[in-house]
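Input:
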Amino acid sequence: MFSLIILPALIIGGLGLLFGIGLAYSANKFQVEVDPRVEMIIEVLPGANCGACGMPGCSGYADAIVHAHAPVDKCAPGGSEVAKKIAGIMGTEAGEMTKKVAFIHCSSGGCNNTNLHYKYEGVGTCVSAISYADGPNLCRWGCVFQNDCLRACPFGAISLDENGMRIIDPELCTACGKCVKACPRYLIELIPYENHDVHIVCSSHDKGPEAKRVCGSGKPCIGCGLCVKNCPVNAIRLENNLAIIDYNVCTNCGKCATVCPTKCIIDSRGVQPSA
Amino acid sequence: MEYLGNIFIMAISAILIQNFILARFLGLCPFLGVSTKMDSAFGMGMAVIFVMTLASSLTYLINVYLLIPNDIQYLSTIAFILAIAALVQFVEMVIKKNAPALYKSLGIYLPLITTNCAVLGVALLNFIDKWPNGKSYNFLDSTLNGFFSGIGFTFVLLLMAGIRERYEFIETPKSMRGFPIALVTAGCMALAFMGFAGLKL
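Output:
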């Protein structure tokens, strides 16, 4: 009776008790102190784990704020509201954040683009498309319309219009930067949202005649420099045959959009027919 | 010198011939679950090697000094589960405290291993497997067997992860996408590993 039932029960029970006490003791001994502020900040953050702050996920960012004194206003999806809450937890001041949105600097990514040198029917990603003979479209700078950016967007802010063009909804866009990283042609840039309506819809560094020949939308930047000359505040510069607007300087006057000979600078307020 | 040769035989046997996943069909859950990315497969593999080695030595001690003297070896399964779970918990705590970097790379996989049947399998099989001359494993042999079994597990996990990463780039028929093709692949790999069964050591 004893050796058959009670002893085995005692041994296993004792083993369990021993391990239990050992674990309870070591849990105390090896306890890692977690700053309660980390938990509080994780609660405040949107929890999208988008990585716009440059940290691995929201918990990584919360950890960095508390332990590495990372700035509190890095959360793009949360905006200034979240920054203020985090600042409240940390007892610091939050600066005002400017809302940014993603913008695609190319207007040829749709079914209107017939300027192709072959029809791409491979795996439906942009990365794969541009690896075959520099992409299906003649322009080697432009959008290859396989929608890598659309799939990368965690907030559903990018959609397709009836022409197959990618439309970014500025209300849904949180400027997390996932599409910026996803685009293998580096066409997407995060630009300030408020009071900036004038944009260049081309990323081609080709010379004028070549850019005109290959462009799928007929609105290439030919690098003529008219916008540079006409800008009253010198906000536009020319880099390798491509005009680039410096949004920190731009006053949103829209002058460049009226002088651009290829209508490659658009003004979304409608001073000229927009794309 | 002969011992070294035996160790080599044990290593080849644990990694290729009697591989835990593809020949003994143990530990299939992490094999299919954590093999979609190379990074996580590697992390999981390292954690398994670590836990298998420790669990082999701990369960050997429990068996020899507690179960065999009292003639209650029929309780070895439950005793080993208890020991392995407690050990993994303890190791997790120690790593979390003393090596946060290691905890970050292994930590999330450690709880997964607690009830992994491959770990329990190696602990139980250490008392069933024998040397070719009929001698059973001693403490060092058991520990080494656990270590090599872990390497075999990691090896196959990495092979699978490499194959599944390549599946991302091919057009799989819709009905076969994801898990079905992974299971077919696992079957083919098991068939390939059958070839090692003929290896004469």
